[in-house]
Design goal:
Layout (H helix, E strand, L loop, with lengths): L6 E2 L2 E2 H35 L1 H10 L3 E7 L1 E17 L2 E5 L4 E6 L6 E2 L4 E5 L2 H20 L17 H26 L4 H47 L2 E3 L4 E6 L6 E2 L4 E6 L4 E8 L11 E6 L2 E12 L9 E8 L10 E17 L5 E3 L2 E8 L2 E12 L4 E5 L6 E4 L10 E3 L2
Parallel strand pairs: 3-23
Antiparallel strand pairs: 1-2, 3-22, 4-13, 4-17, 5-12, 6-8, 6-11, 7-10, 8-9, 10-12, 13-16, 14-15, 14-17, 15-16, 17-21, 18-19, 19-20, 20-21
Helix pairs in contact: 3-5, 4-5
Length: 422
């Protein structure tokens, strides 16, 4: 078996190929070592504070805008969420059954206290009033009083049935006394006197019955008077009036509809003031007290509204760890129950704090810092912040009043020369 080989430049082809790969491997290793050395040198240079300082000091001074740390008086607040609710809500129902003859309001109607909202057909109840008036007049006449009048006082001794009973009793007494004299003289039999004695006792009983009848008629008169008042009240109940100022939230019935007693007709809500119900977390519950001022911001409404904490829940909810508080908020006419609200409860007023502009703070890896200007150079300083607003940020640690800091530091380096813009 013969072996055929290819030749190039007087050498076998596989020998030349091996040498070419060996040369390429040496070239790649040399490049890799150079890159590693350059990276190490660069890292050493960047991590050397002295080198960085030298670089910063050699750089030209950068013009920056500066501001001094100032002390301002602010108020401490507890920020919570809440919602608006109607101060009062009432579902107005009928006290009596009947057909609705009039309905003067509809969904969304604005009503005033005492305004007529609906009315039941009154004819049946007017007839009941007339019937009760007739029964009352009859009861007055039986007592010897005029049919009409409001004075129901009666002297029972002057009534007809009592005077009649008294007359019969007087006659029986006289007969008994005459017969008693005749019996003593022996002119009549004892049986005749006994009959007169019995007639006297009967007349005495009739007088007592007459007085009792008068008392009974007086009671009936009082009953008829009460029945008349009930009939008049039922007639008045045919009209449904607004118990307070507000708006109609729901209309439950229509004209011509027959409704039973206690059937709902309309639902009325009081719109001014409104109840603000806010949920205070347990950790902040101790800071909130009745009488504290609040500021309310409504979603989609830039106008701030104010109020006062008026009611506080007696317990903290065990599931949500929330304390429910209520405040009264005056409604200028633009607020509506059910609206979502952001609430700031003012717990302390006029507290001094240190503040800086938000643009002066740089946040990196969760740490906050500012650049102070000292001896014409920028010095990096870590700080601790508190309350944040759109125009200022509270600084609780890291700076003091009068420190000059850089606004919008950008890519400043520690030790870099700076000059303040005029």
């Amino acid at each position: 078996m013969s072996l055929r080989m290819q030749w190039q430049n007087g050498r076998p082809l596989h020998v030349n190929t091996f040498r070419w790969f060996h040369q390429q491997k040496r070239t790649y290793a040399t490049w890799l070592i150079g890159a590693v050395l350059c990276t190490a040198v660069s890292a050493c240079t960047s991590n050397d504070p002295a080198a960085a300082r030298q670089t910063s000091e050699s750089a030209p001074a950068k013009q920056v805008k500066t501001v001094a740390v100032e002390r301002r008086m602010v108020e401490r607040t507890v920020d919570v969420l809440g919602s608006l609710a109607a101060y009062d809500q009432a579902t107005l129902s009928t006290k009596i059954p009947g057909r609705i003859a009039r309905l003067t309001v509809d969904f969304g109607s604005l009503v005033e206290q005492g305004q007529i909202l609906a009315q039941i057909e009154p004819r049946d109840y007017q007839l009941q009033v007339q019937q009760a008036e007739a029964a009352l007049a009859q009861a007055r006449v039986r007592l010897g009083l005029p049919p009409q009048g409001t004075n129901d006082d009666v002297d029972s001794e002057r009534t007809a049935i009592v005077r009649q009973a008294q007359a019969l009793l007087a006659d029986a007494r006289q007969k008994r006394e005459r017969l008693a004299t005749l019996v003593e003289k022996g002119l009549i039999a004892r049986a005749d006197f006994d009959s007169a004695e019995a007639a006297y006792n009967v007349a005495l009983g009739r007088l007592q019955d007459a007085k009792d009848e008068i008392h009974n008629r007086q009671a009936i008169l009082m009953q008829r008077r009460a029945e008349l008042e009930i009939a008049r009240q039922r007639l008045a109940d045919t009209v449904i009036r607004a118990p307070f100022d507000g708006n109609i939230q729901t209309r439950h019935a229509s004209i011509g509809e027959y409704v039973a007693a206690s059937a709902p007709v309309v639902t009325l809500v009081r719109m001014n003031p409104l109840r603000l119900r806010a949920e205070v977390p347990e950790r902040a519950a101790a800071q909130v007290q009745a009488g504290q001022k609040i500021r309310v911001m409504i979603e989609g409404d830039p106008t701030p509204y104010t109020g006062v904490v008026t009611r506080m829940g007696p317990v903290i909810n065990e599931q949500t760890r929330i304390l429910l508080v209520e405040a009264d908020v005056r409604n200028p006419g633009t607020l509506r129950p059910g609206a979502f609200a952001r609430v700031a409860i003012v717990t302390t007023e006029a507290v001094p704090i240190l503040s800086v502009p938000p643009q002066a703070i740089v946040t990196f890896a969760g740490l906050e810092k500012v650049w102070l200007v000292q001896d014409g150079r920028a010095i990096e300083k870590s700080i601790v912040t508190g309350t944040h607003t759109e125009s200022w940020v509270e600084v609780t640690d890291g700076v003091k009043v009068g420190d000059v800091i850089v606004v919008t530091p950008g890519n400043l380096r520690t030790g870099q020369a700076v000059t303040a813009l005029q």
